[in-house]
Give the backbone structure.
Amino acid sequence: MQCRICDSTNLEPALDLGQHPWCNHFLKKEEIGHEPYYPLRVVFCHDCRAAQLDYTVKKEIMFGDHTYLSGVTQSLGEHFRKIAVEVDTRFFPQAPGRSVLDIGSNDGTQLRHYQKLGYEVLGVESSVTAARLAIAAGVPTRNEFFNLDSARRIGRKFHVINAAGVFFHLEELHSVTAAIRESLREDGVFVVQFLYMKRIMENLAFDQIYHEHLLYYNLATLGRLLRRHGLELFDAYLAPIHGGQMIGFVTHAGKRSASARLLELAAAEERDRANEFATYQDFARRIETFKKENLAFLQGARRHEQRVWGLGAPVKGNTLLNYFGIGPELIECLVERNPLRRGLFAPGSHIPVLMEDEAPGAPDIYYVLAWNFKREILERYRALIEKGVLFHFPVNFPE
């Protein structure tokens, strides 16, 4: 294959997680055992130093319709509110006719916060179900994939373009990046929110690697992609959401100077060797130790006849469950709040999903797959914790 960013063929395997089902394909009972599997491997480009998957599950399979909803968790909604207020206050507090385009707008959660600030909003969302929910909530949404062709059909420029948790999904990477440049006003700001590979490795959060995430950016590698298309990062910071998500601010090349904190983050990447192949090799070795420790914990609970339920049925949780080889014999069920996953089973592991309001009582241990919402979970389940239910977070991260 060619590097998704620079077209080089100088690629080397960095992490092989084996064969996995598409992790957002939660199963109906009759589908159990019939889900297709695909390679899940991260390769490293020795020319531009970008980490990426070497196999692409077609975007029509992954994003034509799915069960992820961004409005389910309070923490994410509050994060989106803060982003909208920050962007408005910093860049466009007095601008007439303020407008925002959200790429991969899901159920419209981010755009609703911009609406409250007086922006004209437009979402582009590939999922039929999520787009329908957004429209029903009063958020103008086009149900299609965003790329250069769709941008030209939209035919306008925006003050703000937002991509939250979607820019590392892109099969049509260069078409989308060119479309962003073409759709962004000369004074506009592209807000790119992405899982930060440096933090993924530091947190040992390997479950954030799955087929939807085709690319794993650090600032240096994202910068190379943007410069190829006449765009440039001018500011960035690390937000606590999802265990460490980078918020990058981008505009047309040469329009704004790099901030001091962006330069500091870039220097930290170099200092910590975040873009070196040896760091990825060390990450792979640490994952193996992590697997042994977690299986020992769950098998010990089983020997002591403790009931273990999974808390949350996040997409990333399926990477962990399948790589660790965990099934219903170790985790009885996954307790979830997203109604689109009601009555379904996790792909690969075939663990049943129960709605929170359907769960019969409580287990001895909650194995928290939705670990990125730790603070919200500890607050919501305080009463159970006080009763002695153990909440085990396989991934712990500094907030």
In short: DSSP finds 13 helices and 16 strands in the chain. The chain has a mean pLDDT of 94. The two ends are 37 Å apart (CA to CA). The CA atoms of residues 102 and 162 lie 5 Å apart.
